[in-house]
Specification:
This protein has 459 residues and is of the alpha+beta class. It has 20 helices and 8 strands. A 4-stranded mixed sheet has the order 6-5-7-8. A two-stranded antiparallel sheet has the order 1-2. The chain has a two-stranded antiparallel ribbon with strand order 3-4.
Length: 459
């Protein structure tokens, strides 16, 4: 059996009643978290360009652009809303087994939500389709080393969306198989072209999930109309690339199901995943630090993801854009030490250009610690140690073994709500986060998704 056929069988066979409570709870939380991230990005330059483009192109009014009343065709809605959800780099990430690729599986949610809206699906049907998208992406991420082949993990979205959305849109097994093959053949390969230490991060980094979701929905619609594509596109791709492929994760897609959705990390802070522990440590030390002008040096001891690469590059010490700043360990640590928090508001007004903050960033040293490197590679722990040496001789230290938001150290409901407020309330007004979370938590009883979408607009 081809992998696309396994995906189709899973998509059509899974029922809401098959989902354990922990899976349903995770699905509700990731929907709320993702939509809050999307609301927070309304008005950001990249998504704003795509929104104008979608409104100009129009099409059939099938799905809503988040944050407003405009309705466009399904692929365009996936494009815009997918870009919104990813733009601020605060959406979730899969806690993959050590040595395997991860991925922001919530990148698929905007496309799935658009399909649910167009189909008049219930809340339970939406949540089940979200789980389909997450589980398929988990199998894809573990089966193949996408990043090692020059393919960004967001590629997985284009392979998963046809199955999850196809279920909602009434596609047959054969049509879903063709949709997966079509999306994979024509739009499912997102090159890893933007995370380079020597370059600023461009808009396509945030927009890529939108393009992947657009390709997935377009493929589903074409397959429903009778357009065919090969069932073995995934096998063909990795037969032609150097690969240590392991197909066994696809076996989880057949009963008895072994769900991975609860292994989802929710970011506490709007910053790249590897920097989360460093921000957490800096927030912890903020009360003891007092005036950051009195810091002699702040040293982050951690794995390569926080102390090297894009996060520790020369560009990270002199960011020129928000996208580069939220991947910069020196920037996010400096802000957290100064303010005691890191929120979307921390990026307003281009603070990375502030001479005083840039001076503080120059006093943030990054050291690769072999112990933290082993902990990440062998155990999947995203920890670090922050040591702040003050001019008065004091030495302050904070250790994070595993960041908040990891499934082994999950966010509480209050912490999730606090994060969401930072994204939704400045855009939609006070109480928006509570309304959105309540709408998501009501999905198991909801007859449709209109209330959820309405919670993404001003009250």
């Amino acid at each position: 059996m081809f992998h696309a056929e396994r995906m189709a069988d899973f998509a059509l066979g899974l029922r809401f009643d098959d989902l354990p409570d922990a899976v349903v709870e995770t699905a509700v939380r990731v929907v709320a978290d993702t939509l809050a991230c999307a609301v927070g990005a309304i008005g950001e330059p990249g998504p704003a360009i795509l929104r104008r483009y979608a409104i100009e192109r129009g099409g059939r009014p099938e799905a809503t652009l988040l944050g407003g009343e405009e309705r466009v065709d399904l692929p365009l809605a996936a494009l815009v809303n997918g870009a919104l959800a990813r733009d601020l780099d605060a959406n979730d990430l899969y806690a993959a087994p050590p040595g395997r690729d991860a991925g922001h599986f919530s990148d698929a949610i905007p496309a799935v939500l658009a399909a649910a809206e167009a189909a008049g699906a219930s809340g339970r049907e939406l949540l089940t389709a979200v789980v389909v998208a997450y589980e398929i992406q988990a199998a894809l991420s573990e089966a193949y080393r996408w990043m090692d082949r020059g393919l960004h993990s967001v590629s997985q979205v284009a392979w998963a969306v046809p199955a999850a959305a196809g279920r909602l849109l009434g596609l047959s097994r054969e049509q879903i198989v063709s949709a997966i093959g079509l999306a994979g053949t024509t739009g499912g390969l997102i090159l890893q072209s933007w995370l380079k230490p020597s370059l600023a991060i461009p808009m396509v980094k945030g927009g890529a999930p939108g393009f992947a979701g657009q390709a997935g929905l377009q493929a589903a619609l074409l397959a429903r109309a009778g357009f065919t594509a090969p069932p073995d596109a995934l096998e063909t791709l990795f037969d032609r690339l150097p690969s240590d492929a392991d197909p066994t994760p696809f076996e989880r897609l057949a009963p008895p199901y072994a769900f991975t959705t609860p292994r989802t990390m929710l970011k506490r802070y709007p910053a790249q995943i590897y920097t989360q522990a460093a921000v957490q440590a800096a927030v912890e030390l903020h009360p003891e630090v007092g005036n950051v002008d009195d810091i002699a040096v702040a040293t982050v001891y951690g794995h390569r993801g926080v102390a090297a690469g894009v996060q520790g590059s020369a560009a990270a010490y002199t960011p020129e854009s928000r996208a580069t700043a939220d991947h910069s360990t020196p920037f996010v640590v400096a802000v957290a030490l100064r303010d005691g928090d890191l929120t979307p508001a921390s990026y307003q007004g281009e603070p990375w250009k502030d001479p005083a903050l840039r001076d503080l960033m120059q006093r943030v040293d990054l050291v690769i610690d072999p112990a933290f490197e082993r902990a990440l590679v062998e155990e999947g722990r995203f920890g670090c140690r922050l040591v702040v040496e003050m001019l008065d001789g004091r030495r302050l230290e904070a250790m994070v073994e595993q960041q908040r938001g990891h499934p082994d150290n999950p966010l509480s409901r209050d912490e999730l709500l606090a994060k969401m407020r930072g994204f939704t309330d400045p855009v939609l007004g006070d109480g928006a986060a509570e309304r959105l979370l309540a709408a998501a938590e009501a999905l198991p009883q909801a007859t449709g998704v209109d209330a959820l979408i309405a919670a993404c607009r001003p009250a």
